[in-house]
Design goal:
64% of the residues lie in helices and 14% in strands. The protein has a four-stranded antiparallel beta sheet with strand order 2-1-4-3. By secondary structure, it is an alpha+beta fold. The protein is built from six helices and four strands, in the order αααββααββα.
Length: 232
């Protein structure tokens, strides 16, 4: 917006043709800026909502996976649980499983505490790269494990919150921003071409009148204006 205002001030003493071209660029710049800002804001809010819903869906899938590995006599398959926990870590989720007596069955922080710390640190850096003032912290959600209509334990799923972006999410957002910038640049270039064409059509007859008026003032009364304009 500051650039647009500066553009207006800079052309105040230039020719009509230049001012017309600059006017097209000014309007295009303002429109592109407003559209880009509003689009980015709306899409960002929508994407945040999508990420939150997607994370909740992942949490429920983890709970279902844990429930499905339980045998008929309520025996925990530790190997299968560990596989579920490792896959959850790859998605920046830290899980802790307890039975009905509150005994820990499996804990990601015990399995690989260093990896958990690195994941949280990397996630925080990812969010800071997108939102420099983002204030997030580690948080957990608890889900009951229901087997045969009976609660046999619970799952604590921790993550960097209130929401977080994966590397793929950040790549998608960055690509979207690049597309918006490309559209903006193309729009300005197109506005310049249209402005140049329209300025030429509008100023050419005027320039011809000015030239003829100068010739008449110098005594050349036979000069005639042959330009035909369809503009009133």
């Amino acid at each position: 917006m500051v650039l647009a205002i500066g553009l207006v001030v800079a052309i105040m003493k230039y020719s009509l043709r230049t001012k017309l071209i600059a006017s097209y660029l000014f309007v295009a710049l303002v429109c592109v800026s407003l559209i880009s800002i509003s689009t980015n804001f709306i899409l960002d809010k929508q994407f945040q909502q999508y990420v939150k819903q997607n994370q909740e869906q992942k949490n429920k899938e983890i709970v279902n996976s844990i429930t499905n590995q339980i045998s008929s006599n309520v025996v925990w398959n530790i190997n299968e649980i560990e596989n579920i926990g490792v896959i959850a870590l790859e998605n920046s989720l830290i899980i802790k499983i307890r039975d009905a007596n509150d005994t820990i069955i499996w804990d990601a922080t015990v399995h690989n505490h260093g990896l958990c710390e690195r994941i949280l640190q990397q996630t925080a850096e990812n969010m800071k790269s997108r939102y420099p003032n983002f204030k997030g912290e580690y948080s957990e959600k608890t889900y009951p494990i229901i087997y045969n209509d009976k609660k046999i334990g619970r799952v604590d799923i921790g993550s960097y919150g209130p929401f977080y972006y994966s590397l793929n999410d950040l790549a998608f957002i960055n690509t979207l921003n690049k597309i918006l910038i490309s559209i903006g640049i193309f729009s300005l270039f197109f506005a310049f071409l249209i402005g140049t064409y329209m300025a030429g059509r509008l100023t050419k007859p005027i320039s011809r009148v000015i030239r003829s008026a100068k010739m008449i003032s110098n005594g050349y009364f036979d000069d005639r204006i042959k330009e035909i304009s369809d503009t009133k």
